[in-house]
Amino acid sequence: MRIPRSRRAAGPSAARAVHQLVPRLAWGDAVGNQVRYLRELLRSWGYASEIYADQWDEECRPLVRPAKDYPREADDASALIIHHSFESRLVPLIARSPGRKAVVYHNVTPARLFEGFERKVAQACEAARDELLAMRPLVECAWAYSRFSAEELVAAGYPHVSVLPFAVDWRAFDVEPDPVLRAELDDGCANLLFVGRAVPSKRVDDVLRVFTAWQRLYQPRSRLLIAGYLNRETPYGAYLYGLKEMLGAERVQFLGRVSAAQLSACFSVASAYVSMSRHEGFGVPLLEAMYRGVPVVAYGAAAVPETMGGAGVASLTNDPVEMARLLAVLERDPALRREMVAAQRARVEQLGQEAVAEAVREGLQPFLEGSLRAPSAGSEPSGVNLVCPGFAASPEAPGSQLARRLMEQLPGSRLLTLNPQPRPMELAPRSLRVGGLEVRAFTPDEPLPRDAAREFPGSSSLQTALRTSRVPTVFLPADSLLARDTLPHLSAEAWGVRDTSRPLSAPDVGERLGQRLLTFDPRQPEPTVSALVQALRATGALRAS
User: Fold this and answer.
1) How confident is the model at residue 430 (pLDDT cuts 50, 70, 90)?
2) Per-residue pLDDT at 321 exceeds 90
3) Residue 497: how many CA atoms within 13 Å on its side-chain side?
4) What is the dihedral of CA 150, 151, 152, 153, to 10 degrees?
5) Using omega within 30 degrees of 0 as the cis cutoff, is the peptide bond preceding 395 cis?
6) Does the predicted model carry a pTM greater than 0.85?
7) Which residue from 197, 162, 166, 418 is spatially nearest to 307, judged by alpha carbons?
8) Domain coordinates of the chain in residue numbers?
9) 470: which residues sit within 8 A by CB, 6+ positions away?
10) Cβ–Cβ contacts within 10 Å for residue 342, how many?
11) What per-residue confidence (pLDDT) applies to 380?
12) What is the DSSP letter of 524?
């Protein structure tokens, strides 16, 4: 069977049919919603458009074609939009498919957020990042739904990266509340609400801790509502129930999956919406709460601040007591609450259906018309990658001073760090000047700690940049979270430096680096600088200056 072509006028390289590929098409899933939305837009613009998937929900059966059929049914006039968010095992199929291709990246959750609870899911997340790199040579361009996600595409070397607005069907939220559940919950208690699957990356356990602190310190007559899939038989599900008993908070309700009417009932009685998620490529429930007039208080990790767009509260701390204090201030200041709700409504208005559809069309148009230019080849540093996560935030710290000395001795190298003040409206990584030194600053997965002595967070985009690099990498310090995440995936040789005044926090780092792990005395840095430079030159990684 051949896919019917559109009658739309097109240039020689323009697509006549534009299809989508997704590993699984699920009803009500954020990725699935975007896939169906894009299909309707593409058809309204005159393109033949089908959805191909490897798996699908029964409700989606009429909407989908088997992914295995795509290479046979497509031709050189076909264009394929590939949605990527989890391990798909579809890269070989994509490689042998005719026609032009592009990626929509919904982001992949860092594997470490599942460690200790979901080993297979953690492995699948690692595999999904491998697939992201494997698809890069196969596509012409890539889009993301946040600048946070787009930064990782840039770091991976994808050509023509841009951001698409996320389309939300606001009408789906206009459902009358379930009267029985609403009557049960509207009993004078102040209700905190979280909506989402109970998986480790969402940190529902931290929502429990925040609620417990709020109930004990500020609002004893309160209730916590957690609406979303929760499997009590999984390690994380069992952990949540055990934590609930240990904390001893009253009126905690795990509602599980709820109907649209039941969800409307939850929002209708909610005093505030609370999210402690450690990773979001966008975050639809945040906007749903805003649309429904519920104040949002969220931990500002990953793309959460960008999704909120300056409305609500995107906290720089995940400390339960401080989060509880924010909720108490909000509850006791009606004027502040009204101001917050008004700002949230203004944010929602920015994502109106017509404006989003036009912006999506503008974003897709160069690919659809085949007018993208071939990207110019990037340049790789001739020295090494010096990775010092805390350099921009603490330029006078001993490790930062060591990084500065190494930059002086290693010409052509680049210093990579975490951006202490990422700006959601700027597409990173950014070039910064810190103390007269030019550095590349990447967005951290979580806000940087206020206490410089605490461990710095990881960075998905910086990790990806290192995985695509072909020159040696030096980690300062060797046992940073970033080093622990990245070392297993580096193809080029890696080195590390550890501070002798502090114990090595990750013994496996020492095992991986072996003799490439050097020690550093903050009072006498020169021996370490000389030893590292000599060792790099001895391996041929550096040319003698």
Assistant:
1) confident
2) yes
3) 28
4) 50
5) no
6) yes
7) 166
8) 17-167+357-369, 171-349, 385-538
9) 380, 491, 492
10) 12
11) 65
12) B
Q: Is the pLDDT of residue 40 over 80?
A: yes
Is there a common fold for 171-349 and 385-538? Answer: yes
Is the pLDDT confidence value at 11 over 60? no
> Cβ distance 466 to 387 under 8 Å?
yes
CATH of domain 385-538: 3.40.50
Phi-psi region of 46 (alpha: psi -120 to 50; beta: other; left: phi over 0): left
Query: What CA–CA distance (Å, rounded) separates 539 from 516?
Result: 11
The CATH number of the structural domain formed by 17-167+357-369 is 3.40.50.2000
Do the Cβ atoms of 522 and 501 come closer than 8 Å?
yes
In order, the DSSP letters of 131-177 are HHHHHGGG-SEEEESSHHHHHHHHHTT-SSEEEPPPP--GGGG--PP
Judge whether residue 365 has pLDDT over 70. yes
Q: CA 68 → CA 18, 63, 317, distances in Å?
A: 17, 16, 46
CB-CB contact of 407 with 527 (8 Å): no
- Written as six digits, the tokens of 501 are 């005044």
Higher pLDDT, 269 or 380: 269
Both tokens assigned to 220: 């004893």
| Nearest in space to 22 (alpha carbons), one of 84, 75, 73, 66 | 84
Which letter does DSSP use for residue 201 in this model? G
Averaged over 382-402, what is the pLDDT? 93
Average pLDDT for 137-151: 96
Domain 171-349 has CATH 1.10.3210.10: no
What pLDDT, on a 0 to 100 scale, did the predictor assign at position 8? 41
Report long-range pairs for 114-117 (Cβ below 8 Å, ≥24 apart).
114/199, 114/200, 114/201, 116/200, 116/235, 117/200, 117/234, 117/235, 117/236, 117/239
Residue 110, C-beta contacts closer than 8 angstroms, at least 6 positions apart: 125, 201, 279, 445, 458, 460, 485
Q: Between these two residues, 377 and 371, which has the higher pLDDT value?
A: 371
8 A C-beta contact, residue 521 and residue 528: yes
Let me know how many helices (H) and strands (E) the chain has, helices first.
Answer: 19, 20
